[in-house]
């Protein structure tokens, strides 16, 4: 007995989850790049030689991607595949 319908449904859901995750990541990266401002010195001009660090939005993006991978892995592992 083969489970072609089950595999098709699972492949569709996995593909949709990955596509949604990639689209959200692209929007967040775009927002973080546009919203990032260089640190300023005492006179209010941007400092050219400062270490930029990681903006808070990108830290949230990294955390979100990590949680997304963990949740999707758990979801796929808990669904199981009947062979």
Describe this structure in words.
- The longest helix has 32 residues, at 4-35.
- The protein is an all-alpha fold and 83 residues long.
- The radius of gyration is 20 Å and the shape is elongated.
- It has helices at 4-35, 56-79.
Task: List the main descriptive attributes of the protein structure presented here.
mainly alpha, about 80 residues, 2 helices, elongated
What is the topology?
Blueprint: H1 4-35, H2 56-79
Put simply, the count of helices is 2
What percentage of residues falls in helices of 4 or more residues? 55-70%
Are there runs of 5+ residues with pLDDT below 50, and where? none
The termini sit apart by 8 Å
* Strand count: 0
Profile the largest sheet: none
Would you tell me the structural class of the helices and strands?
Answer: mainly alpha
Can you give me a brief rundown of this structure?
The chain has two helices and no strands. It has helices spanning 4-35, 56-79. Helix 1 runs antiparallel to helix 2 (56-79).
């Amino acid at each position: 007995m083969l489970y072609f319908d089950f595999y098709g449904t699972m492949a569709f859901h996995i593909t949709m989850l990955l596509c949604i995750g990639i689209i959200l990541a692209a929007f967040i990266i775009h927002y973080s790049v546009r919203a990032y401002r260089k640190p300023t010195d005492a006179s209010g001009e941007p400092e050219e030689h400062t270490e930029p660090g990681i903006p808070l939005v990108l830290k949230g993006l990294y955390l979100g991607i990590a949680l997304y991978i963990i949740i999707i892995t758990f979801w796929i592992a808990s669904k199981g595949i009947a062979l």
